Amino acid sequence: MSLNAAQTKLKKEFMNFTGVDEKTAISILKKYNFDVNQAVNKYFESESKSGPNAQKYEQIFNTYMDSQSKKIEAEGIQKFCNDLGISPMDAVILVISYYFGAKKSGEYTKEEFCQGMSVLKVTSIAELKANIPHIRNELMDEETFKKVYKFTFNFSRESKNLEFESARALWEILLPFVFHFHKEWLQFLDQLPKEKQKDISQDLWNMLLEFHIQVRNDLSKYDPYSAWPSQIDEFMEFMGFKPQFEEY
């Protein structure tokens, strides 16, 4: 099969991510109509269930699994983190959860855990622990950070919005990787009166990242005419910014 330029690029992406040879990559991509995301997910799903390391993944999962729910829950996650040498409040666990494709904070299903280990290309806790510095450094890459950051909102919420205290705790561990004004943002949140410490919407969560992209380390780049959530406008007032609106 002759590939066009776009398909050739997708083939290279698939090969780099999965480590398979060219013939295998083309075969799998053809099966999923060159939808690289679906092809990657299906590849690792298959590897985690029937690949050469499937039994290893299951054995590791069973080490942490709750015998009643058949999931890894709070106690198992604490043990998992202890074995990795990290705190459950370390941002690294959010990156790991992202690669696991975890749907809910505080638990991993067998499918999520095994597929995630396959995606991370590790076959033991020792290998995963050795890879922690690399996983942490991935948060310094803006594109990876965006994916993990947006994943974290849905992963962590229990309803439509994210509880204020939960959002603050997550911002405290995530924002230092990218947001120059992360300390000031937390100070702003802490000085809000109780009646304003409301649950955080997905719009505010995502727009804070867009705010960072616009201003970087220079608040003078802030555009007051943009449709920011009110909390971001209030943050700028907290920082002493006084917008100069044009008169007509």
TrEMBL record:
Neddylation of cullins play an essential role in the regulation of SCF-type complexes activity. This is Defective in cullin neddylation protein. One of its GO terms (cellular component) is ubiquitin ligase complex. It comes from Ichthyophthirius multifiliis (White spot disease agent). InterPro entries: DCN-prot, DCN1-like_PONY, EF-hand-dom_pair, PONY_dom, UBA-like_sf. Keywords: Ubl conjugation pathway. It comes from the Eukaryota. GO terms for biological process: protein neddylation. PROSITE patterns: DCUN1. Residues 52-240 form the DCUN1 domain. Pfam families: Cullin_binding (PF03556), UBA_4 (PF14555). One of its GO terms (molecular function) is cullin family protein binding. PANTHER family: DCN1-LIKE PROTEIN 3, RP42 RELATED.
